[in-house]
Amino acid sequence: MDITHLDEVPAFTTKDGSEIRELLAHRNSVIRHQSLAEARLPVGGSTQEHYHAMTEEIYYITHGTGWMRIGDEERAVRPGDAIAIPPGARHKLWNTGHETLRLLCCCAPAYEHHDTILTEA
């Protein structure tokens, strides 16, 4: 049985600049076709705009507030929002609030650096 606690998972920085803690993926569990991670953005921080050639993502905001851009659409996001990001869609997330923006990120297939294509410097 694979059970992972957030406090026991080391953080690392993704290619887009997010700090994530990978809770379940092929690197640490029996899960093979997706991954679940918690991402954090500091106050005033943002990801670099990017897309994933193969991976679809779901972001679920748990703490803080932000601004999400997918393609040419933009919208404010807050706790309880679930955001669908299809493969190939350029996206960027900003923390516009007064606390660390925290979100769960589910990727299928699992997150890999090589599937992250940066679209801004």
Amount of beta strand: over 45%
Structural category: mainly beta
CATH topology: Jelly Rolls
Low-pLDDT residue spans: none
Could you give the distance between the termini? 41 Å
Shape: globular
Folded structure, characterized:
The protein is an all-beta fold and 121 residues long. The chain has a single domain (12-112), classed as Jelly Rolls (Sandwich), CATH 2.60.120.10. The chain has no helices and eleven strands. The chain has strands at residues 12-13, 19-24, 35-41, 50-52, 56-63, 66-70, 73-77, 82-85, 91-95, 101-108, 116-118. A six-stranded antiparallel sheet has the order 1-2-3-10-5-8, with no helix packed on it.
Task: Give a quick set of tags describing it.
121 residues; mainly beta; Jelly Rolls; six-stranded antiparallel beta sheet; three-stranded antiparallel beta sheet
Briefly say what this structure is.
This protein is mostly beta strands. The protein contains no helices and eleven strands.
Question: Strands, helices and their partners?
Answer:
Elements lengths: L11 E2 L5 E6 L10 E7 L8 E3 L3 E8 L2 E5 L2 E5 L4 E4 L5 E5 L5 E8 L7 E3 L3
Antiparallel strand pairs: 1-2, 2-3, 3-10, 4-11, 5-8, 5-10, 6-7, 6-9
